[in-house]
Design goal:
2 domains, mainly alpha, binds heme C, elongated, two-stranded antiparallel sheet
Length: 284
């Protein structure tokens, strides 16, 4: 039949097009989901893979501490004089422009430089997380130099996620951290123009450092507030928030199958509508 043949040809092509578009969309999404890292796998290897003659974190302890290499102090001093002493002074004792760093401990120094907060460009605004200016070896050399000037303060923590509990971390995070960083860790504005930043870029070491050293307006959680095990549990939960159990991770707010289905429908229906218009236009 002439009519049937004509209609068949007209409908089949656009429908096939729509189906192809949907399938392509879905294939792209599932690739995105597969590429996302699952919790527990180490995505902080840049900090944790550094051995530096120190502890390896291979044992059962939830947190081990990095031993800094004294032979890097000279390099650290050079880097410090070039990048930091204009504000903090040659021996890190502080100036009118910036505070004394002596005795703060390697974890504090490491947090501020590895999160790119230091060196600071504008001392009048809250220092923000940005890519570090240094290699990991250079950061550790600066840590070694400043730590060599005066004893004290916490050492650089290395978290063993295998020895930490996700569910305990979730409870501890909601009571101790969510008020400022929100329950999803996305961050929020606090009073007085201060903000609690997003926790998504932080490495395991940086999270533990922030908890133990209390940067800026964040409270410091000492061993009396949170045990070493509890800090590791919290770190595990924050890492989980960064890659929530692959509910369908294509960055659509991590809402999972609902969002993906929605996008699938949008693309599917969208192409059907276009097909409809196309058929309609040709039929006239
Ligand atoms: C332009 C000036 C400036 C430069 C350069 C600078 N800092 Fe700072 N630094 C500051 C100021 C101001 C603060 C206090 C800011 C704050 O608390 O938000 C600060 C705070 C810090 C802190 C936190 C101190 C504390 O009590 O918690 C550390 C650690 C630090 N700086 C290390 C460094 C290192 C290491 C370098 C070089 C890589 C550096 N800074 C370069 C101005 C500077
Ligand atoms: C009273 C509010 C408050 C609470 C409670 C709090 N924080 Fe923070 N946190 C802050 C603020 C403010 C900063 C930014 C500090 C700065 O840059 O000056 C911060 C920074 C951080 C960072 C650094 C993120 C980056 O930009 O690299 C981490 C990680 C972090 N907090 C984790 C935690 C964890 C884990 C807890 C719970 C144990 C917690 N915080 C509890 C306010 C808070």
């Amino acid at each position: 039949m002439k009519f049937g043949k004509k209609l068949g040809g007209r409908v089949l092509f656009p429908v096939a097009l729509g189906v192809a578009a949907s399938v392509t969309g879905m294939a792209l999404f599932s690739q995105g989901a597969a590429a996302a890292t699952t919790p527990g796998s180490s995505n902080s290897s840049s900090t944790n893979s550094v051995t530096y003659g120190g502890t390896s974190g291979a044992g059962k302890a939830p947190i081990t501490y990095l031993k800094l290499d004294p032979s890097t102090i000279a390099l650290g001093k050079t880097l410090f004089v070039e990048n930091c002493s204009s504000c903090h002074g040659d021996t890190a004792a502080g100036t009118s422009r910036a505070p004394n760093l002596q005795g703060l401990g390697a974890a504090t120094i490491d947090f501020w430089i590895s999160t790119g907060r230091m060196p600071l460009a504008d001392p009048t605004v809250q220092a923000t997380e940005k890519p570090s200016r240094f290699t990991r070896a250079q950061e550790l050399a600066i840590d070694a130099y400043v730590s060599s000037l005066a004893p004290g303060g916490p050492a650089i923590p290395q978290v063993n996620l295998g020895a930490a509990s996700l569910s305990a971390g979730q409870g501890l995070f909601s009571t101790n951290c969510a008020a400022c960083h929100t329950i999803t860790g996305v961050g929020d504005a606090l009073a007085g123009g201060v903000y609690a930043p997003s926790l998504y870029p932080a490495t395991t070491t940086q999270i533990a450092e922030a908890v133990r050293t209390g940067p800026g307006n964040m409270p410091r959680f000492g061993t009396g507030n949170l045990s070493t095990q509890q800090v590791a549990d919290i770190v595990k939960y924050v890492k989980y928030l960064q890659h929530p159990n692959n509910a369908g991770g294509i960055g659509l707010g991590h809402v999972g199958p609902v969002t993906e289905g929605f996008v699938g429908i949008l693309i599917g229906l969208g192409s059907l509508m276009i097909a409809g218009y196309w058929i309609g236009g040709r039929a006239r």
